[in-house]
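Project outcomes to date are best conveyed with an example. Our students and postdoctoral researchers have been running inverse folding experiments weekly, and each run begins with a structure described purely in tokens. The record below, which covers 178 residues, was selected by the lab manager from last quarter's runs and is presented without edits.
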């Protein structure tokens, strides 16, 4: 029961890491383009399925479509995604220079990081509620065993909430660093 609970908590942390990875920090990160959907071959696909994304410099992304004929579609998809990027097309690849972040934009992104952390804490609370309900409903456990499991669950929740706070604080520091 506790192992299943830990697995769900680890899933919540992984989700937080993915959400924070998508936030702009002034440095190039391929996860910034995760939300881009490319209209190619008659359907919409994630950019990662259509092109290879690399980081040649700290503030630049290089997008190389697997099929050179789709470069126009990829460029259009990046522009339509409204990420604030203007790709430069050289015929074979797209270069995306990550613009410097203004102080105001950094604050907004830091708020998004806090929001993602708060959403993770809500998820953790919901996981805790499910675990507590499962413990209470388990007829095979004695009252002492139930109390011990509930204490273990709460300790794990406290530990993971602290981890969320640490991860969000580190991301905020990274965002606010010029």
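After processing, the design step wrote out the following sequence:
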């Amino acid at each position: 029961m506790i192992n299943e609970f830990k697995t769900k908590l680890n899933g919540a942390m992984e989700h937080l890491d993915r959400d924070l990875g998508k936030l702009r920090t002034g440095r190039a990160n391929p996860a910034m383009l995760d939300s881009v959907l490319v209209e190619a071959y008659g359907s919409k696909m994630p950019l990662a399925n259509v092109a290879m994304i690399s980081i040649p410099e700290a503030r630049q992304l290089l997008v190389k479509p697997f099929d050179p004929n789709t470069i126009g579609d990829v460029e259009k998809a990046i522009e339509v995604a409204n990420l604030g990027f203007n790709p430069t097309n050289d015929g074979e690849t797209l270069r995306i220079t990550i613009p410097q972040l203004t102080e105001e934009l950094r604050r907004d992104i830091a708020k998004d990081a806090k929001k993602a952390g708060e959403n993770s804490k809500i998820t953790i609370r919901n996981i805790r509620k499910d675990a507590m309900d499962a413990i209470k409903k388990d007829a095979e456990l004695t009252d002492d065993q139930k109390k011990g499991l509930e204490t273990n669950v709460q300790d794990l929740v406290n530990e993971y909430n602290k981890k969320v706070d640490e991860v969000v604080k580190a991301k905020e520091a990274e965002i606010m660093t010029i």
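Strands lie at 37-40, 43-46, 51-57, 60-65, 88-89, 94-97. The CA atoms of residues 14 and 57 lie 27 Å apart. The training component of this project remains on track.
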